[in-house]
Design a protein that fits this description.
The chain has 14 helices and 12 strands. By secondary structure, it is an alpha/beta fold. It has 2 domains: 59-177 and 316-343, 3-Layer(aba) Sandwich (Rossmann fold), CATH 3.40.50; 178-313 and 346-372, Rossmann fold. The strands form 2 sheets. Strands 2-1-3-4-5-11 form a 6-stranded parallel sheet, sandwiched between helices. Strands 7-6-8-9-10-12 form a 6-stranded mixed sheet, with helices on both faces. Helix 11 links the parallel strand 9 and strand 10. Helix 7 packs across helix 8, helix 9 packs across helix 10 and helix 11 (296-303) runs parallel beside helix 14 (366-372). The longest helix is centred in the middle third of the chain and has 17 residues, at 210-226. The radius of gyration is 20 Å and the shape is globular. The two termini are 37 Å apart. 53% of the residues are buried.
């Protein structure tokens, strides 16, 4: 997979780099198709992306891991969405295939102090492996360093603690192409708005969180470079932990102050649910919403032809599988890539059911299927 992020300042240059005719990049459909052939994100420390297909364990290697009787803990930043559940499912499935016992799964509720406490509690059980996503890269760094010093092999999702170096302080970090998913959400917004464009607002994550900042930067850069007929007229940050409620308040204020707004981008699916609530309260049935992450509630909205017109999806189940395999690398002393990234997946109603299978490795829920009829 090639990294083209540096070219995003010029849509024409990016199109040419991918072998497209420059005018084709002005078409959202062409741009969305191109996204699935590349990875735009770099790692938290500027690492170039490695393809997940290169992370493999032979039958002999898996047999060796099974003989170790290793244990693992999964330390989440936040567990209240479909993305987190899919990550955990992928991890548990692959750990089971490797004979690794999962001894703890924690949810910090996006509170750094809770995650530090979770890590301290878990270390009393001496896990061989910790797979985690830091809520705050600075506030949690000392706790992760203590875990590493005690012998736990660390594999990260999306974000890494401040000052940590791959291959020394941790094994690897695995992520979706969050920059690419922000780009996808921008193109999907442009497609839904149509050739006339219009005013839009943004609901972003007001925290020092690497992947959500990537989405925000990517969305803004793509609108600015590719769609001069679309104007960002308002932005509101949310901090949580009530991300849906905070987003509802932010979007409500935005719609009141800017009645010209035709669309709102939300940083992930749970805040997008809050934007839906705000749109309903404001009587704005015509509002267009795009986001990142394919949760069930936004999928139902999309299936109904409702507010959600498109989103950039991560592949959390597959990411969990890769993270577990990288933990196996560490147990074997096998050299691991510093940063593994999975391509963005643009999703609209047209490909919703197929996309759900790709994201969660299972059929769409009955609720989603019934709304597609």
């Amino acid at each position: 997979m090639l990294n083209r992020r540096a070219l995003l300042g010029s849509a024409t240059a990016f199109a040419l780099a991918l072998g497209l005719n420059a005018p084709a990049f002005a078409d959202p459909d062409s741009a969305l198709a191109a996204l699935q052939e590349t990875v735009l994100s770099k790692g938290p420390n500027g690492e170039e992306p490695t393809a997940p297909s290169t992370v493999v364990l032979s039958d002999e290697e898996i047999a060796k891991i099974k003989e170790m009787g290793a244990s693992a803990a999964i330390v989440m930043h936040y567990g209240g969405n479909d993305w987190a559940r899919a990550q955990i499912n992928g991890l548990q499935t692959q750990f089971a295939a490797m004979g690794i016992e999962v001894i703890a799964i924690t949810d910090a509720g996006f509170k750094p102090e809770k995650q530090v406490s979770d890590l301290e509690t878990i270390m009393a059980q001496s896990p061989d492996i910790i797979v985690s996503i830091p809520t705050d890269p600075t506030a949690t760094a000392a706790a992760y360093r203590a875990a590493s010093a005690a012998g736990a092999k660390l594999v990260f999702m999306d974000n890494v603690p401040t000052g940590f170096v791959a291959g020394t302080d941790f094994v690897s970090v695995v992520s979706a192409d969050n920059y690419g998913n922000g780009v996808a959400a921008a193109h999907l917004m442009a497609k839904a708005l149509g050739p006339d464009g219009g005013d839009i607002g943004l609901v972003f994550h007001a925290a020092d969180f690497f992947v959500t900042k990537q989405r925000y930067d990517a969305f803004k850069a793509t609108i600015a470079s590719d769609y001069p007929n679309i104007k960002i007229v308002d932005e509101q940050g949310i901090g949580g932990p009530d991300f849906s409620g905070d987003a509802e308040k932010a979007a409500g204020a935005m719609l009141t102050a800017n009645p010209s707004i035709k669309g709102i981008w939300a940083v992930w699916d749970v805040p997008a649910e809050g934007v839906i609530s705000a749109a309903r309260a404001a009587g704005r049935d015509d509002l267009i919403i795009t986001t990142v992450d394919l949760g069930e509630n936004v999928a139902i909205s999309m299936a109904q032809g409702g507010f959600i017109k498109g989103l950039g999806a991560q592949r959390p189940y597959d990411a969990g599988v890769v993270e577990a395999k990288l933990a196996g690398y560490a147990l074997l002393g096998k050299e691991a890539p510093a940063f593994v990234a999975l391509p963005a997946l643009p999703v609209s109603k047209d490909n919703l059911l197929d996309a759900w299978k790709q994201v969660y490795s299972t059929e769409a829920t009955d609720n989603i299927k019934s709304m597609m009829q």
